[in-house]
Every structure is written in structure tokens, then in C-alpha cells.
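Bench notes, bay 3.
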Amino acid sequence: MRITILGAAAGGGFPQWNCNCRNCAGVRSGAVRARPRTQSSIFVRDDQAADGVLFNASPDILEQIRANPALQPNRRVRDSAIAGVVLMDGQIDHATGLFMLRERGSPLPLWCTDPVEQDLTQGNPILRVLGHYCGVQRERIVPDGTPFTIPGAPGLAFRAFALASKAAPYSPHRDAPVPGDNIGMLITDRTSGRSAFYAPGLGEITPPLFDVMSGADAVFVDGTFWTDDEMIALGLSKKTARDIGHLPQSGAGGMIEWLDQLPASARRFLIHINNTNPILDEDSPQRAELARHRIEVCEDGVTLEI
């Protein structure tokens, strides 16, 4: 199974267009050793296939396609290697890119949960707008671990799990989450049996969810914030990381503590990294701490074989 990191940043990308925090100002000036990143998305294929599945469609999707020729195989006049799109939530940074795929010419195969479909039909009616262009062939994801497949990527199997996190700010149940607002996905290569767990928005890890993570050969999980009060300390918000649905890396019960408990053979990756997170600075003590825990920070354009 091949996983291409199309984008590794949280909403706004890195550097964020209007941000002059230490990271953003530093990467622009060269004072901070860090790599720019687009907004989070991955593309997954089995080893035998050219086509695969796009997980989340960020506002940067056209830039990501141009930067990754595998997504534009050039087999016919109009072509794409995207066999289908899976949405992990209805957040703007994960769904706006659907607009950029409107030239498809046939209904876009889209997998999402019922709450996400409702939010993208009502509160942020992307799916209704696409009905005036290519249209959408929506397939239902039930986040209870039931296996399913996606036509065009028959070598892969998928299992979705409801996460404790937050719906998009425009959702009517933003402050009263329902199962399916946000999901994690176990992706398995049906030939090799190798698997990866993907959860870019993760507010809490429960024992049943950790059992799923522990069975994967690689995990790609929420890397948004280093500390719970990161945005408060910078004067950018009055809410903690957990308030907005993200488990911070450091501190008691943080992501590092959980990842340390995974089997030694499992690879650990952080994705969906906010522009304020000090782990983006490759020379920071926080980045060094991740290395000591064998946790890797995702970078745009990297293809991993699982």
C-alpha cells in the first residue's frame, strides 16, 4: 500500500497567509528551518493500482495534484487517478477542494457519513452547488467498523470509526457532537494485510479506538497543537486544543503518551499540523522530543510504502 501525503498542515496551511507567529514569519524569512505545507490530505493506492482514494479535498487540491504527477496519469484527454473521495469530516479545510473537482464530467464518487452529508447539503451546501456541475454520487459511511470497499480501488478495504471530536463551526451540532461528525479510518491492503489508521482530527482516544490503532502497521493522527493552551498563550484564541476537538501532543494524556503505548513495530506520524505548532521548526526541542519517541512529522509530497 502506498500513501502519498498531499498536505500535512491544518487549516490555513503553513505559513498561514495572514499569520506572523514565530513559525510563519520565520519560514518566510529563512530564520526558522521549516518546510511549507499545504492543508491536510492523503492519497492511498494498493501496490498494483494506478488509481486510488483521496482522503479529504483541501482548498489546496489543485496545487497538490500539480505537485504529485501520480494523481494525473494522462491516459486520455480528461483523466484523473482519483477513484473516489472520502471525507473524514465536514471542515472547510477538508471539503472546499470538492469545488475544484467540478470539471470531472461525471458524478464525483464521494464517501461520507450522514452528519457530514447533512452539513454539506444545508449549513455549507457544497454538494448542492456541485449538482450544477459534475454532480455527486454520494455513498454512505457508517462509522461502526463495518468493512467496505470502493470501486476503482478494489485492493483496499476500509473500516470507519466515530471519533470524539467536533463538527465544523457552521454545523448545528458543533457544540453537541453526534457520531459521524468526525471519523478515523483503518485502511487495509487486501493482498498483504498491511494496514494504516488515519485520523487527522482526534479529540480523544478511547480504549476501543486504541485497540484499532494498535492493530495498524502505521498511524497518521492529529498533530494540530503541541500544548492544550497553545492558541491562548499566543493570544489567538480563548479556546484550548481540546475545546475545538484536538488532542495536544504534550502533557498528561496527550498524543505522545498514547503513541508510546503502540507496538514497537508501528510507525507513528503526525498530520494536520497547525502553523503555530513548534514541531514545524526542525531545530526545536519539541521536534527533538518527538524523535526520541520515534514519532515522525508528515511532509507534503512524501510517498510511504506500508
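Next record in the batch:
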Amino acid sequence: MPAIQSLEAFYARKFDKNPSLSANGVEAFNVFRLTDSRNSSTAASPYARYDFYKIMLINGQHRCHYADKSIAFAGSTLLFFNPAVPYRFERLGKQSTGFFCVFKESFYTESFRKGIHDLPMFTPGGKPVYALNETRELEVATLFEKMLNEMHSDYRFKYDLLRNYVSELLHCAMKMEPHEQLYHHPDTNARITSIFMALLERQFPIDLPGQPIQMRSPSDFADKLGVHVNHLNRAVRLTTGKTTTAHIAERMAAEATALLKHTNWNISEISYSLGFAHPSYFTSFFKKQTKVTPTSIRLV
């Protein structure tokens, strides 16, 4: 599965000296100029899910890749990223300027009682990219400048004020029509299938019996990809000729065979490591896939 990138890991990748972090969700808020972070040239960031929200004002040519689509944009753009949707970001031009802020959901708990994830720019399948004209760009840049200034102040209620500035960014976006220029891959189904197969393979080999795999069903993988399970199933079937369930079952059976042949784990341990609640369920699954019992494999 794509590793979940923490705020700490993000800081380590982006900055030579990590900004200080507080265990308090409110104080985990931070804001930066893009020029403050490391220049990553034109290399695309890894496809990953992050455990924080990010709002970015950026100038230049870029492309953002999701499981089922890529969005290309140029000029001044306001972007929203959320923990529910994995993505990777690609710079197409030589330089980028702008700002970004990061925060955990707890930063907004007091202001949005239903959760910030319910806002249109942060819902899975929502619209995360907004093209800005000169007036909107000035408005958004001014808000980021205010946040930068406030972060360095000793004002007692500065986080309340920062929440207000972020709220203005959100409302600014919600008043605009989102802008998407889709970059169509030669075969979107193949792209989704490729990511699915990579997620499946990353669960193996299993090294410890006490750490069961986390994704065993098509819906588990669809959730990680940020696509509907029917979309995933259709893409995999069209690309490979086999169902998502069949791929998962075949890989689990192959791992089970390897564990039976090359470890001294008992059947219960192997069952648990593959996510089965009871050894009898594992035995039934294994016989269906291989036509033999787990015990017969161990005796070979």
C-alpha cells in the first residue's frame, strides 16, 4: 500500500531544518513560502497518502496525478489536498513560486463541527484545483502573507485568527468554478491496474506472523486508490482479463504456499497473517485456490 506520509516525514523531505512540531493539533498548523522548501527540480513526488491537509497557491506549470486521472494546470492556481486521496505532484516547469499551509483536521474541529472533510474541495471525487485571475491571485496571496506574519507573532489568539484566514481561502475557492484540465493517460484503466498491482505486491512477503495484511478485498484497495470499487473492478478486468478478487486470491495463495514451505509457522499463525479470523477459513480458501490442503504442502 502507499505509505502514509506523516507531517514530520513531509518536513524532513522538504526542509533542511525541520520546523518544530507540537503534539497539539492546533499548533501543528504551519505556513511557508514555496521558496523556503527544497527545490525538487522536475522530479515527481512519490504517489502517497498524507496524514494532513494542505492548501497551496502556486505559479508555473504542474500536474497532479490521482489514481483515476491527472490534472494539468499553469499560471496562478489554488490547490487543495486532503488525507482521503493519495496523489503525486509533478513540476513541469523549471521554477515554482507561491505559498502553502499544512494542518491536521483537529485544527478545524472547533470551527466546522461536521468536519472539514465535508467541504467540496476536500471530498473524495471533489474539485481540488482552482485557476486564479489577477484579482483572485492577489486576494489569496495576501491571505498567505497575513498567515506568515501571524505565525511569527506572540498574539495570544493567533491560531483563531489563522483559522479565519484559512476559512477565507476556503470560501474564496467555493465562490469560484473549479478548473480542471485533464491530462488523459494513454490508458487510464492500465494506470489504475498498475497502481492496484503495486499496492497488492507491497503487502508481501509477510515477515512476522503477528502483523496481518491490511487489504484483502477490492473495496480495501479502492479506498486506498480513492476510486469507486466498481471503477477499480472494471479497470482491472478490462486490462488483465481477470477480476480484482482473482488477483488478490492468487497472490494470497502464493504467499501462503511460500509460508508453508519456508517457515515453521503453524497453520493458525499463517491464517492470521493472511487476515483470516479462523484457521478453518484459511484451509477452505487454500483448498479452493490450489486444490490441495495446507498440510499436504507442508509435508512435501
